[in-house]
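User: Please write out a complete single-protein record containing the residue sequence and its fold in token form, without commentary.

AI:
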Amino acid sequence: MDHPHSILVIDDDEDSRDAMTECMRIQGAADARGASDGADGMLQLLTGFLPCMILLDMRMGGVDGTEFLRRKALDATVCLIPVIVISGTVWPILGAVVASLLKPIDVSELAALITQYCSAAT
């Protein structure tokens, strides 16, 4: 990773979320935080954590990935933060979604995508 990235991982599976945030730290992220669903993710964004990338699971209990993307798109402060969908199914690349990766992910591919699409680079 070219600069100290900040990453928000939104996933309702605590083990997956913790593993992904730790993986991002190992890859050089300066700040990697987890959110348990889309509502928790929006709360973190709207209370001041503005990451350069969001990693998003789509199928979650509570506020799912689709609803998170809808809410995020309505807020001018966070709408341009790029999103990489990480899911068991391929998702379309629409709006702020810059890539879709299937679980289990290839960490080197994810790191390359973060470097390529990081909002700090734009």
